[in-house]
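Bumping with the actual sequence this time:
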Amino acid sequence: MPDEGNLDPIEEPALFMVGLGWDFSLPLASTADFTNRFSVQGFSIEVKYVGLGRLEIGGLVAWHTLAEKGFSTYTDPTGDVTVSGTSVHEMSSNPLMLRAHYAFRQGARPDPIGKLVPYVAVGVGGSRVLRRIDLGIDRFTRESWHWAVGPEVGVELPLGPATLLLSSRLNYLFASGGGPEQLYLNFTVGAGLD
């Protein structure tokens, strides 16, 4: 009979990962028509269940701001007011998504330290969008909620207790609530904690 006092404990892999990301945003299509400046103002928080082998499921909450200063003319939706001058166009987006990941790993977690694990993911959910134009002393705002999808590709690099996360996500927000469709690309650098 083995001596149970000399057995090393078996370390169980963590079933959840919490990821914190710094999101950079590049406006595309109709979003670039409103503000065409690359932004470093954004972050994301993701929680996912990783106990299903290569499949991982979870949720993501993010905040992204894109802003640009320039000269413009603005006419309100009623057509009653037209104002011209130096302006700041700002769009703030808050995606809330349920997500599924598929990791291209050899075996079950945990992955070997220093081994890149590529993945693909898709998120579906909603997003609040606040578009604001500051023009002189006037401020024009429009808030709307949109259905959203977010396909993503990325890599994870395990570094012991933490994992380096690098990804690129396309955010497509369908036209809704009087607000036009929005399209922008995120580049994320982050860390995941098991």
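The tokens above came from a reply further down the thread. The chain has one helix and eight strands.
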